[in-house]
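Hi all, long-time lurker, first post. I run a small reading group and we've been trying to get comfortable going from sequence to structure in the token notation. Rather than ask abstract questions, I figured I'd post a concrete chain and ask someone more experienced to write out its structure so we can walk through it together at our next meeting. Sequence below, copied exactly:
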Amino acid sequence: MTSLRLLAVLVGVVGSAGLASADVIVQGYVGYSGSWSQYNTLADAQAQSAVGPGGVIAPGNLSINAFQGITSGPAMGPDLALVVSQAGSPLSGFIQYENTTDPNSGITGAFLNPELTAFGLTITGGASTPSGNGNDQRFETGTTPASNGTFRSFTLNAIFTGISGNGTYPNGSNTLATGGGFTGVSGSISGIFENSSSGAFYAFNLNLSPATNPPALPEGAIPFASNLVIPEPATLVAVGVFSFGALALRRRKWSKTVTPAVAA
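-- Answer (accepted) --
Happy to help. Here is the structure in token form:
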């Protein structure tokens, strides 16, 4: 089963169960590489027509920090998605997505087996209008004059495997957590970015892979946590694949606090 289909099943199962948004933590580093294409208008980028220049984004590392329903720190709310290229990575571009200025953002995550050795994560977003020139949204190809702008669409799908260090969430709850890392990751990041300096639109597709020599997470960081465990893949096939639109993300404010991992 492809990672995209498995994530569709994940969201479908959560939505069909009539649950509110799951409590989610994902913190870790992954590798990425991919390509980009430039367009003059958003319509062209969405239709992938009248394509302009394009290029390759060389392999690099990025950090993923996702918190849904669980507070990520004293200065951060409980619904945070932060995806940032790791400083010093040998890459020809740079990406930074932060959902604090994205009204359409959503985070979904769950363990994919009872052993808690696999985890699925989906982050979606995209602003219908430009959000200004802040530093929280950036995309560089290596040739763009400036990197600030707006993600008009953003989708991250990731499957993490080989997770170790199973346990329970500190402070007591029904949220399951892991204290160890993972050995495998697959998935993708795709979207359209509007550069506020040039006015150009950049469609990008990045493939995810294990990071190369990633730094250790800060002490106290929890790599994975969720209060959802969905069935084994064999059961999922019987359940069927549901639409991503089946999930109505309704966020809950928890008072719990964890230490986020933030890329430099």
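A couple of things your group might point at:
The longest helix spans residues 3-16.
Confidence is low (pLDDT under 50) at residues 1-6, 11-21, 234-264.
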